[in-house]
Amino acid sequence: MMALTEFDCTQCGACCFGGHDRYIVLLEQDTNRNIPPALTNEIDGRRYMKMQNGHCAQLCAAPGGQLNCGVYDQRPEACRAFRSGSFECTRARMHRMAQADAMRIVAGSGIMPGAEVA
Fold this sequence. Notes:
23% helix, two-stranded antiparallel ribbon, two-stranded antiparallel sheet, alpha+beta
């Protein structure tokens, strides 16, 4: 498990977990970012990053158990404003680190979620 005192934004993933489809809103500042429309949903006239299994669909599990953002260089303003070590970061780690750790463990095992285990 990742300790709460480690603040590596590019590998943690706790802030990428949210309980609803309106978790990561795209703002006017995101208009010029290269975020493909297929990665977003429109709800009530606003665009949001797609969610999958309780987290942003762009949160990718890499071999070795790391979690990375699939669009990190183009990530939305809402994600950019979420500062490593901030109050919000600490809250996300406190409330969602177990979900991130579970995803990290699955990634490290090489077993994809939903795959049959013999």
